[in-house]
Amino acid sequence: MDDHAALLYDLLLLENQIPWRVLDCLFKLTRENDGTDEPSLYELTLNYFEYYTLGRCPKKIEETGSKHLLDFIRKCLLEGTKEDSTNIHPDSDWAPIPCVTELLQSGVKFQRTNDRMLNITFENGVMKIPAIEVHENGGSLFRNLIIYEQYEDREQYR
Q1: Record's InterPro entries (predicted)?
Q2: Closest Cα partner for 115 from 71, 157, 77?
Q3: 141: CB partners within 8 A, 6+ apart
């Protein structure tokens, strides 16, 4: 793992998250007030993590809306999805989605799309799924996002 990959890995671990407000305060301490138009922490973060957001992070995500870097990545990936969490309850019964092999065996066809990451549709026996590439730290990123979402969902119902 090269230095850049190791840094990204550490920055996106759930246990390493620092509140965005703290990051922003520290960032502002490093800036000179010389009147030049320097990019904000938000803009630099957007550029640095563009690869991890699959280039799909819209420029309009509110700068102060992220709790930390992992939350920033999550919001970028979820932006524009048809997510409706009002029907989700942590104690509800749920059934696992069959694996791709089982779906193929039952006649489901798959079609690649260039849509938002979580805009998955199923119509007339065709499941349309956006393509993603999971690289060196991708597995770690997704595991941390899953853990973070599970934690956030539980906090919502306390």
Answers
A1: DUF247_pln
A2: 77
A3: 12, 52, 73
Indicate the length of the chain as a whole number.
158
The string of DSSP codes covering 47-63 is: HHTTTTTTT---TTS-G
Mind giving me the DSSP string for 114-146?
-S-TT--EEETTEEEEE-----TTHHHHHHHHH
Could you tell me the pTM of the whole model? 0.64
pLDDT digits (tens, 9 = 90+) for 83-142: 444 444 555 566 677 888 999 999 999 999 987 766 788 999 999 988 877 666 677 888
Structure-token pair, residue 90: 């942590």
pLDDT digits (tens, 9 = 90+) for 39-89: 888 888 888 887 767 666 666 666 557 899 999 888 887 765 544 444 445
SS3 1: coil
Q: Is 25 left (phi over 0), alpha (psi -120 to 50) or beta?
A: alpha
**Domain residue spans of the chain:** 3-86+135-156, 94-128
Q: Residue 117: what residue type?
A: M
Q: 126-152 burial string, b = 16+ CB within 10 Å, else e?
A: eeebeeeeeeebeebbeebbeebeeee
